[in-house]
């Protein structure tokens, strides 16, 4: 009776409740880590490494209050990806593994953004709406 789509929805719901718990405690317990590891596998370790290296920035634009994340990749070039944690990332893996092949729920940058936000480990960047629009126009 269980379809891949139903399994993915259940996984998302579990992940969502873990992020909320981490956020309310501002810390990550062993239980949280083991559940997240079960859900995301190796991508969780990669995401944690990005967060540890200070690779997550949250960009907020005024006056709209719109926000997105910039997450540094792990390749040598250290490119930054524009990341909407629940919906989209501009990295190659997001389009290849997630959109095309449907093998994963989200990429490591999305996990890094959620993790950094949940524990408050991201840096804040303030932009105007015009600057944000310019950034998005390059997508
Ligand atoms: Zn990504």
UniProtKB/TrEMBL annotation:
GO terms for biological process: double-strand break repair via homologous recombination. One of its GO terms (cellular component) is Shu complex. One of its GO terms (molecular function) is zinc ion binding. PROSITE patterns: ZF_SWIM. It comes from the Eukaryota. Residues 69-118 form the SWIM-type domain. Keywords: Metal-binding, Zinc, Zinc-finger. This is Zinc finger SWIM domain-containing protein 7 isoform X1. It comes from Ananas comosus (Pineapple).
């Amino acid at each position: 009776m269980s379809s891949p789509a139903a399994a993915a929805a259940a996984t998302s719901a579990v992940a969502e409740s873990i992020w909320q718990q981490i956020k309310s405690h501002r810390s990550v317990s062993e239980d949280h880590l083991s559940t997240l590891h079960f859900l995301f596998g190796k991508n969780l370790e990669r995401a944690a490494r990005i967060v540890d290296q200070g690779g997550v920035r949250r960009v907020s634009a005024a006056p709209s209050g719109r926000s997105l994340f910039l997450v540094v990749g792990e390749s040598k070039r250290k490119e930054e990806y524009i990341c909407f944690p629940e919906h989209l990332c501009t990295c190659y893996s997001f389009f290849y593994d997630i959109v095309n092949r449907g093998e994963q729920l989200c990429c490591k940058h999305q996990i890094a953004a959620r993790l950094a936000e949940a524990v408050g480990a991201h840096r804040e960047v303030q932009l105007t709406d015009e600057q944000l629009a310019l950034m998005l126009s390059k997508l």
